[in-house]
Amino acid sequence: MELGLFQQQNLSLVMTAELRQAIAILQYPCYELSRFLQEQAVENPLIELSESSAVFEKSKKKALQKNHSHQDADMIGRMQPAELTMHDHLLHQVLDMPIPENQAAVVRYLILNIDHAGYLDITREEMLERFSITSALFDECIDWLHQLEPAGIGARNLRECLILQMRALGMTKHDLPYQVADRYLDLLAERKLKQIASFLAVTVQEAEQAGDFIQSLDPKPGRKLSQPSDMGYLYPDLSVTENNGSYSLSVNEQFMPKIGLNEGYANLLHTKAGGAAQYLQEHFQKLQWLQKSLEQRKNTLIMIAKEIVSAQQRFLKWGPEHLVPMTLKEVADRIGMHESTVSRAVKNKIIQTPRGAFELKYFFTTKIETVGGENASAQTAKLAIKKLVESEDKAKPLSDQAIAERLVAEKGLNISRRTVAKYREELNIPSSSKRKRYS
């Protein structure tokens, strides 16, 4: 084989930076797209962002309400206290407790290592090493910690959390729920009530009642003191509204800033020479590409949403039980796009409908054959399974095979036992053995 340098021509697909940007923009939901545009405005001086009038009016209204509330507070002469965190509540309780000085610092440190669920997130070994204390002194500090409210706070595991709550209710190790939580929590999770009853020499009904009581306790006591963080609001990318039986579609652009050319640089774009001219031209092209990608994203979403609205008229009128099965490929073929493009476009997108807000991918489900030869959606089958389980005899819950047979007989849905099990797990419905009730 001869070694050397040779010229050769070939064809290959290369993804440009602009194409990668267009793909990324297509996948962004509106709240992420707004953040992306703000980042681009920081990097590109030619980009000027302006909030939509709807967002401006909303912000203005909030500001006016805030000013009025401050004026009212000044008139009363009081200020709203800052919201206390879970750790603040616990530390305030410690101030009223007769904790010895050599233990107070340890207890405060333990409190600061409680997670939002209320569990202690530091090990005994770490504490002994950090404070150079004995194991006995650490146990005394844990006892002080477990006297805090709500009961169960500062527990190191679920078993300890439940037992602390039962102790606060005056229960002892002689009570049946205490014994179940202390020794057979794993069996209770598996609903193996007969085994628990056999080990404790009680009836199955008594074991079930003990399990019901344990389930009534709070497995995450820290949530009672934790301030909820900022709520995750839905920002629909699209909206469907009903007017006299017909449906109209709109893109919610009010949640995104408007992008345009910074007029301060407009005149400089005509500069013919110099490094500044090249710099401005490059960033102007980036601005144009960004505008083009945004318009392409908008048009793609509209085309997909139009197909969904057209196909899901029964869903929009009567609800999820009438969802028509659709696939990404079918929609892609109708609008003349590749299936992967449709898949990227529907990712994390929300559509507001008269039936509520749904992810776009909610409308793309597998087809299930019916006895009559028609097609039903997987969502229809899931709703039917859920209704059957809710109405079943809890003493004799339906098996997956029995559910499959009922679906064929009552709904005409021809699905297998294995498919029923799959849908049941997706709905977080336990198996028939775990749904069985003895009392």
From TrEMBL:
Zinc is among the record's keywords: no
Protein name: RNA polymerase factor sigma-54
Record lineage: Bacteria, Bacillati, Bacillota, Bacilli, Bacillales
Top-level taxonomic group: Bacteria
Protein family membership: Belongs to the sigma-54 factor family.
Keyword annotations: DNA-binding, DNA-directed RNA polymerase, Nucleotidyltransferase, Sigma factor, Transcription, Transcription regulation, Transferase
Keyword Nucleotidyltransferase: yes
Residues covered by the RNA polymerase sigma factor 54 DNA-binding domain: 278-437
InterPro entries the UniProt entry points to: RNA_pol_sigma_54 (IPR000394), RNA_pol_sigma_54_core-bd (IPR007046), RNA_pol_sigma_54_DNA-bd (IPR007634), RpoN_core-bd_sf (IPR038709)
Residue ranges of every copy of the RNA polymerase sigma factor 54 core-binding domain listed in the record: 82-265
